[in-house]
Amino acid sequence: MNIVLTELQKETLEEVFNIGMGRAAAALSTLVNEEVKLSIPSVRLMRRKEAALVLGGTSRRVCSITQVLRGEFGADAILIFPEEKSLQLVRLMLGESVDLTFVSEIEREALTEVGNIILNACIGTITNLLEGEFSISLPVFKQGDCVEIMQGATDEQEQVVMLLHIDFSVEKYEISGHVAFVQDVRSYQGFVERIERFIQKAMRS
Amino acid sequence: METQEHMVEIGPLCEQVLVTLNLGVIVVDQSLRVLEWNDWMSRHSGIARDTALHRPVLELFPGLSGTRFEAAIQQALLLHQPAILTGSLNRNPLPLYANPANKHDRLHQAIQILPLRHSSEQHFCVIQVSDVSAAFEREAALRRQATLLNDSLQAQSRLMQELEQHNDLLDLQVRERTAQLEELARHLQDVTEAEKSQLARELHDELGSILTAARIDVSWSARKLGDSVPEIQDKLQRVLNNLSEAIQMKRRIIDGMRPTLLTQFGLVEALEFAAGEMADVNGWQLGLDLDAKAQHLPEDISLALFRVAQEALTNAAKYAQATRVDLLLQLDPDEIWFTVADNGVGMTEEARNTPRTHGILGMRQRIVARGGDFELVSVPGKGTRVEVRLPLAAGSGVAPTATPAPEH
Fold this sequence. Notes:
Low-confidence stretches of chain B: 397-408
Pfam families (chain B): HATPase_c (PF02518), HisKA_3 (PF07730), PAS_4 (PF08448)
Organism (chain B): Amantichitinum ursilacus
Helix content of chain B: 55-70%
Order of helices and strands of chain B: HEEHHHHEHEEHHHHEHEEHHEE
Enzyme class (chain B): transferase
CATH architecture of chain A: 3-Layer(aba) Sandwich
GO cellular component, one term (chain B): membrane
EC number (chain B): 2.7.13.3
Oligomer: heterodimer
Number of helices of chain A: 6
Radius of gyration of chain B: 53 Å
CATH superfamily of chain A: CheC-like
Low-confidence stretches of chain A: none
């Protein structure tokens, strides 16, 4: 099965995701009283195994926040940041001076909320595109290597991953991470059809 | 019918559950009006359930208009997205207290805002509030401890650094002082040896000639006097004897100051003679292995080695109860190795540090001052060995042809 997006599909997705990111950035800015910038410079499609390697495989420790999307279209939305960077980021946001060597409970919760805001923006974009009925789970925080994090409930390597690169900056601090939508092939096919329909609609209007 | 019965049973049960829950529950409809306000909320907000019901939630909490709290509720109602609001990022948004009567301790809150879909038209939102004050306190305590620990670790490492620097400084000072003391000791020994030498010459030249002249004169007088006055003759004989003794004593003193053996015969023969004499007196079996080239060593080195040998042999005679003593003297082009070993009772570590060890210190000083190594190896029951290594300055001339004949 071919899992390549056309240039037009890719550009459309990047644009609608960036609109969502603008809203998330505004929400985060109010929250931390600092200007927060969020952007999605690229959207790519790939197999799950490949995505785990692209994200750094087993060699890289990451923090992740996952929300599960169920309905006509099902996907796990996973936000992934390098562990060390996410710690620095959340400490900056909380204004803490003590550098503990581990993620404390409060830091973990703050990170989960930040992830929740970003993921809700991404999920909102998708559900807006797909116009269906969905249920969305609460965010769950996890630490580990990329392979562990990408390991879903099922061990189906055929799953398709839509990988959004995400750039995040607060004050002068910059962090770069990813949002992965892990979906099964059936969902993926419906997803591409919906994008096509959205594009056709947009072009007509 | 069955469903209705079920509803009847579940309804009151749900109410009871809401009353008992140890977390706050608020349910709002699409116009943000309160449909449920549980007991916990009343207890911690000071707003009774009856007051709260059917009023817009932002009227109850006016400070929350336009905040993330409101945005999250709208998101849940319109987009069906759940949200979490942490106390740390949102600075505990709801005015909830352990005791609302005195608004002192605002609860640390963890809030979850969850969409609730009744039908495709009717949407609700559940706001769930937990009190995380205990966890917050725990973490604050942990953070304080971590800060303290960090501070004390830093202080400790600073202290360690200072100590190390101080130690290095002390080390340097000790090395400097030791070098100065060694230099001083060497100087003092050289001066002492020079003075002894000078004194010995004066004793020999001046006192020696005076004593000899006096003895010649007294001897002449005694001969002239003959037996005429026996009392005077007796006195003169006593004077003669005393003068002889004085001359002998002068010789012994000169010998001690500037070993005649050494000046007259050179190191190897002086060592052979001195050791031989001591062996005779003490009944030692003597082992000598002395390099003949050492006969012509520079005077200061010969003297240093001879003094070491004298001291080592004296110690052996006094304390060792040995039956055999060995002297070994070897020459390399640039080094001298000298060993005096006995097979006596040996010394304990303690004994080596007692006051009588001035002698040992003296030996060590002589050698170290000339840039050499001195070692005293002694094991109780296994004898004592004095080991010396002395560097030979280039051109110190140990080749027999290049050195002047020893003084006679």
